[in-house]
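FYI - complex with magnesium ion, inputs then prediction.
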Amino acid sequence: MANGNFIDQVRIYCRSGKGGAGCMHLHRAKYVPKGGPDGGDGGRGGHIILQGNRNLWTLLHLKYQKHILATDGGHGGQSRSFGKDGEDKIIQVPCGTVVYDGDTGEWLAEIKEDKEQLVLLKGGRGGLGNWHFRSATNQTPRYAQPGEPAQERNIVLQLKVLADVGLVGFPNAGKSTLLSVVSAAKPEIADYPFTTLTPQLGIVAVRDNCSFCMADIPGIIEGASEGKGLGLRFLRHIERNAVLLFMVPVAVPDRDGDADEQSALAHIEKEYRILLAELEKYNPELLTKARLLALTKCDIQTLDPQPLQEKLGIPVFCISSVTGMGIPELKDALWAELQKEQNQVIEISHAPIAVDARDVADDDTDTEEDEPGTIYLNEVDEDWDLSKYKGIGWDQ
Ligand SMILES: Nc1nc2c(ncn2[C@@H]2O[C@H](COP(=O)(O)OP(=O)(O)OP(=O)(O)O)[C@@H](O)[C@H]2O)c(=O)[nH]1
Ligand SMILES: [Mg+2]
């Protein structure tokens, strides 16, 4: 997928539909001079609903959709006719989409499953027609209930891809090469830093018809938490991965070829600790995930992983994506790690996001006028007084 097509954050103004007003009508017909109240109820306004869709991988389809408005409920009519319900607006989003309030940055909800639905904004309920207000002491109620107002909100949708294993490493560590070897994904590979600019996913087949999803994210460098390189914004795509695979090249290009093993080990450990520190600055909860370390490019230089394994306390593998060395063992180890019960739960708390003040300013939230009608009590705003309808209908 071209880089420009990977959209993982959009901002949208949403408004549900307002409820239709109840109708105030008194029945009149030939030879029925005082037919009594027969005003019908207003219809419900449309909801704004988010729905998970496993066929979507990005928020690209919402990039140019700045406003999503559900339609209003129809007004009630005479002869106790109901108003039509407003049409719901269903926003399809990829699984793993998190919803934040667009003005405060507060976390609201998240969609994880295919077809999972979330009513983001409820449509207003329709008002009751005057037929409901008839009583022995008030046989001609000359009022009806207004419809409930619409709800509106700016939202930010953020995609946090749902993968099982996330690859973490400096640029040029060989992350994309590994993904291209173990899955059918075709990420861009080159010997310059920051080849990968957007997250890439691949499905890795393991023995016995099993598979897991692997996410390759752009490289991280020291100081990424202060915005260096591509920053840490892509780390949200590994927030929900069950296992993190750290990747550090065993052969460092600018080091002498015959450097002793001790300095190589020290260098690998240093790189690993820098990556760990950057992850911690982004979200300390990332460090609670299971970690494995892969020493890449072992076709150039070999190393005994045992001392490193003891020192770091995590499994270490020597691999080469070029010769295929160590790859089956790595896949098996990742699979075994994914099967562990403590790694099945990938819940993580979502910190509020920072909201750009410029985005907040340019939203035009115009509200359209209702059809002027004599028998509707529909325009109700701040001075919306429900006290006279107490005990009847939806104000209870
Ligand atoms: N010899 C050797 N070279 C490798 C191996 N894996 C990757 N490379 C080379 O290392 C360079 C960088 O590989 P990439 O897979 O693009 O690295 P990356 O980690 O995805 O880099 P960014 O996308 O920039 O973060 C490429 O020139 C690869 O050919 C390996 O196992 N052995
Ligand atoms: Mg890459």
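The chain has two domains: 1-159+366-396, 165-343. The pocket of guanosine-5'-triphosphate (ligand 1) is lined by residues 169, 171-177, 189-191, 193-196, 218-219, 296-297, 299-300, 320-322 (CB under 6 Å).
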